[in-house]
TrEMBL record:
Membrane topology: Multi-pass membrane protein
Record's protein name: Solute carrier family 45 member 3
Membrane spanning residue stretches: 12-32, 44-67, 79-100, 112-139, 151-171, 191-207, 275-297, 328-347, 359-385, 391-409, 496-518, 524-543
Native source organism of the sequence: Hymenochirus boettgeri (Congo dwarf clawed frog)
Subcellular compartments: Membrane
Any GO molecular function: sucrose:proton symporter activity
Major subcellular site: membrane
Length: 558
């Protein structure tokens, strides 16, 4: 496959990513007015918008781990993508037709209508957020090498930017007097019908172009009829001749999240490799900075810059100023998506030329300085220009961390070494420490000639390891402590899920606490000021992240 064909293939594979972002940008943006018109109070409306991230925090690690262990002939990720796509389609049908469905419940129409709206909004947000995890893992499976992963996730970020631009444009169009609106019954039905059509096309394109290779264990089971029969009997209690194995395996994959939260998954989820832990902590604060800006920027412009009042009566001067500020804020977010799309096109070349660390730090520094200018300035033109520059960080956060996860799993022996436990109260030595010490100091660590890498392996440690071994050259037995620090069975889907959990957790924190802080300080400038503070923490933590193999020596030896 030529480079040009590979790029077009990545565009088609990421078509569903674009469709999901269109749905979440247009649907979730359009939903708050619908909830307010239905009688939901504003304080409860923000809680409704937090249902999706909270459910996502529970489901994302389960889906990620279950897809790692899925043995379906449909692929490891595709069954979950199909299931979550069905949830998105169901929500797109429920939200615009909630009043029609509620009319069947005589005497309880209003309460059922509100319940259906809340259910549809929560289902849409949850399924969209969770569906990104198997899509990211699918990209990683299709692109094994580091350069391919970098290009794949750059295209992933590009399609998210395109989807955001289209979604914001669709939600800004006045659908009241269009022919489609008159034919379908209203502007809500018109918009969500367009979203449904776009999403169906995007799902079909991605599923058609993404061909997963069968899992090796599944191929081995297919070659052994007895093992397959036993698997079918234990998993589904249905004889092989009654049901084809691929159907049973697919059902088991979809049902596996129901019982996948077992002690083993809990053990893997809690025992995080240090490199993943540093990356997730950095992502959490970086996303809190970016999401604090994106979630509340329009309200900041409407109230802080235009001095509008959202609770004012329609038609009053205060309400008109607020509505103008909301439109100007939406323009700023659109420019942010456009900038993010632009940087996504060149992200792979930028990381290869300057390095992932420099790009990550540059993007967060640019974001923090832009947010600081927005916080201090009252010039709407300058504020809009600065808001467009924040798209650089938005593109980076959706690209660089996922390529780092691919790198960590490709070089597990380097980035996630297995610890060796030492008897007689000796200090623990990792394989990585052994590697670097033996390469940097020929007399530091050596093994006897003819030694084999068995469970109990005799090694010699000298004082040149600066505290990583004994002070004398004497042998000891190093035993692999696989029960605690063996990451060989850790799947990439689980680590993608942890990155997505950091993104969702940032939204949950902001939804819970930002409203209280703003209300107590009585200033919407706190929204942007918090972005600056979180951005500073993100920059500091980014210096602890391993961006390449050269950084591992610093981590292990100080």
């Amino acid at each position: 496959m030529t480079f040009c064909n590979f790029q077009w293939h990545l565009v088609l594979v990421n078509f569903m990513t674009c469709g999901l972002e269109i749905c979440v940008a247009a649907g979730i943006t359009y939903v708050p007015p619908i909830l307010l018109e239905a009688g939901v109070e504003e304080q409860y409306m923000t809680m409704v918008l937090g249902i999706g991230p909270v459910l996502g925090l529970v489901l994302v690690p389960l889906i990620g781990s279950a897809s790692d262990n899925c043995h379906s002939t449909f692929g490891r990720r595709r069954p979950f993508i199909w299931l979550l796509s069905a949830g998105v389609l169901l929500s797109l049908l429920i939200i615009p037709h909630a009043d029609f469905l509620a009319s069947y419940f005589k005497g309880r129409e209003e309460s059922v209508y509100i319940f259906l709206l809340i259910f549809g909004v929560g289902l849409l947000d949850c399924c969209v957020q969770v569906c990104f995890t198997p899509l990211e893992a699918l990209l990683s499976d299709l692109c094994n090498d580091g350069e391919g992963c970098g290009l794949a996730f750059a295209m992933f970020s590009f399609m998210i930017g395109v989807g955001g631009c289209i979604g914001y444009l669709l939600s800004s169009v006045n659908w009241n007097y269009t022919l489609m609106s008159l034919y379908l019954g209203g502007p809500d039905e018109c918009l969500f019908s367009i979203l449904t059509l776009i999403f169906i096309i995007s799902v079909l394109v991605t599923m058609k172009t993404s061909r997963e290779t069968f899992y090796e264990q599944q191929q081995a089971m297919d070659l052994n009829p007895m093992s397959t029969s036993v698997f079918l009997f234990r998993g589904c209690c249905i004889p092989k001749w009654k049901l084809r194995s691929w159907t049973c395996n697919s059902l088991l994959c979809l049902l596996s999240p129901c019982w996948s939260f077992n002690p083993r998954l809990y053990h893997r989820y809690c025992r995080i490799p240090p490199v993943i832990k540093h990356l997730c902590a950095t992502q959490l604060f970086s996303w809190m900075a970016v999401m604090s800006f994106m979630m509340f920027y329009t309200d900041f412009v409407g109230e802080g810059l235009y001095n509008g009042i959202p609770s004012a009566a329609p038609g009053t001067e205060s309400r008109i100023r607020y509505d103008e500020g909301i439109r100007m804020g939406s323009l700023g977010l659109f420019l942010q998506c456009a900038t993010s799309t632009f940087f996504s096109v060149f992200m792979n070349q930028l990381t290869k030329h300057f390095g992932s660390k420099r790009i990550y730090l540059a993007s967060m520094i640019t974001f923090t300085l832009s947010a600081l200018v927005i916080c201090l300035s009252q010039n709407i033109v300058l504020v809009t220009i600065m808001s467009s520059l924040t798209g650089f960080a938005y593109a980076t956060l959706q690209t660089v961390p996922y390529t780092l996860i691919c790198l960590y799993h490709k070089e597990k022996d380097v980035f996630m070494p297995k610890k060796l436990s030492c008897p007689n109260n000796l200090n623990a030595v990792t394989k990585q420490a052994d590697y670097f010490a033996s390469n940097n100091n020929e007399d530091g660590i050596y093994a006897p000639k003819g030694a084999t890498k068995e469970k109990d392996e005799e090694m010699y440690i000298s004082c040149d390891l600066n505290g990583y071994g004994h002070t004398h050259n004497k042998p000891f037995l190093a035993r692999h402590n696989s029960s605690e620090d063996d990451y060989t069975e850790r799947g990439i889907g689980l680590d993608f899920a942890m990155l997505d959990s950091a993104f969702l957790l940032s939204q949950v924190f902001l939804s819970l606490f930002m409203g209280i802080v703003v209300q107590s300080l009585d200033s919407v400038t706190v929204y942007i000021a918090s972005s600056v503070i979180f951005g500073v923490f993100g920059i500091y933590l980014a210096n602890q992240v391993l961006f390449d193999q050269r950084s591992t020596k610093t981590i292990y030896f100080g």
